Amino acid sequence: MGKIKNFFKRHPLLIYIAALIPFVVACYGYHITGNYTFWEMVYAAIAIYFVNPVSEDVNAFILFGEITSVIVTASIILSVLKYAYAKIEHFFIRMRKDSTVVYTDTEMGRTLAASLKHGYATDNDSRPEKVNSHIIMFDDDAKNITFYSQNEKRLKDKKVYMMMTELDSTLIKATDTSEADLHFFNTNELMARDYWKTHNLYEQKDKTYKIAIIGDNAISDAIFKYGYLNNLYTLEQSFEYHIWGITGAKAKFIGNLPTENKDKIIIHSESAFESADEFTDINRIIYCCEENSIDMIQMILYVNPKAEIHCYFKEETSYEDIYDSDRIIAFGNLDKLLTEDSVKNESLYRLGKLFNYDYALRYAEANAPRDYESQMEKEWRKLSGFKKSSSIARADHYWIEKKLKEDGILTDEDEDALKIEHIRWSRFHFINHWSYAEKRDNAMRKHNLLIPYEKLDAGEKAKDGIYDPTIRSEIESLI
């Protein structure tokens, strides 16, 4: 039913053509009776839409027209009532302080809208509605940007949350000068961050563990990026990332990324299906394309039935009842991540905001006041996308540092924790195309601290810790 509905949304003209079928068939039915002039025939065919036949003549064609015209008329009446009800409902929603509209042409956006306490979805892509919060979730990043840029003055002082799927969030400028209170959220990054938290490699940290990532799209890019950043547990770990599907400059760049420990990145030039034997000793295969997923699952089950097989799907999918394996996992559904709390309250970014505010306090040599929320948000809005992403990456990794200490592997006095954090910080810069230079140059992405931890001066080493006790307390409570 959903597919049929979406089909008619994409081809609205077909709805009008279908509505004319009773008229055309009835016209033919009246015509073959031979009792009507042209205009009498047209009038009689129109009259059946009002359940008011003007003739007692009946044949199969007229009967078909009468029955189907009732369906069309009922559908029109129901549509009008539904439209009127929605307009009335939207009117009362707009009176709420937390009123929110989701501008979307995707099922994901409509699902989010349905979960809002006081909100609704619209496919209107021209002018914003009169509400306090606006969530822009069109399928195309360019369409989202266009909608905002064309309506920036109308959105003045309103909260605006813009979805991205392809746009690199690290390239976005700071939003503290925008007309609206503008926020961004990248669905692929949210999914990849959640993936590595849910399916982390903590228990594999003392093993040589091989991970295959297959695909050349925004999904595979995000999965590799956050695996490279977050899967950092010890200085001696040995993880191997085997990448299939990428070519050219991207393959060269990723293949040459430094790891700063014993981890390895291996780029495979042939296709995954052409190199089945390579999967015999892979521990986890992450397939990032929805097409050909069954072929990939079956190929891996043939050559390596013990491997974990993780497949990307936008909707919840399970193969547990089909395949004789308990190691097939579907990921990618965003319903649990895209909620009112995560989008409007930015709960998934809160740790990043706390870490950034702690940095600000350190540089100001100040301590957090009792009510620091507004100051924290102000500092966050000053940041470019790159610096926001840096704080988020730091926050995502912190649970690992905490767990290593809880398990007695590291202690507060152990310098290995600071070394691991410096490697993570360096990796963040490396994957965002930064490199070492004696003199820092942000415009050219050069940094003088992209050096081994041992070469840092004491002041730089200390920056990797948490400065403010109040902020530390909240960070610890959220892990």
Question: What's the domain count?
Answer: 4
In what range is the share of β-strand residues?
Answer: 5-15%
What is the number of beta strands? 13
What gross morphology would you assign? globular
Unreliable spans are none
Q: Identify the strand order in the major beta sheet.
A: 8-7-6-9-10-11
Helix content: 40-55%
Q: What structural category arises from helix and sheet content?
A: alpha/beta
User: Using only CA atoms, what is the Rg?
Assistant: 29 Å
**Count of DSSP H/I helices:** 17
Largest sheet: 6 strands, parallel
Series of secondary-structure elements, N-terminal to C-terminal? HHHHEHEEHEEHEHEHEEHEEHHHHHEEHH
What do the pLDDT scores average to? 91
Distance between the termini: 42 Å
Structural commentary:
The chain has 17 helices and 13 strands. The strands form three sheets. It has a six-stranded parallel beta sheet with strand order 8-7-6-9-10-11, sandwiched between helices. It has four domains: 2-92, Helix Hairpins, CATH 1.10.287; 94-190; 199-331, NAD(P)-binding Rossmann-like Domain (Rossmann fold); 340-478, no CATH class. Helix 2 runs antiparallel to helix 4 and helix 12 runs antiparallel to helix 17 (469-478). The chain has helices at residues 2-10, 13-33, 38-47, 60-93, 107-115, 141-150, 187-198, 218-230, 248-255, 293-303, 340-344, 350-364, 373-381, 385-406, 416-431, 458-462, 469-478, and strands spanning 100-104, 119-122, 133-137, 159-164, 181-186, 208-214, 238-244, 264-268, 284-287, 308-312, 328-331, 435-436, 446-447. With 479 residues, the protein is α/β, with parallel strands linked by helices. 46% of the residues lie in helices and 13% in strands. The longest helix is centred in the N-terminal third of the chain and has 34 residues, at 60-93.
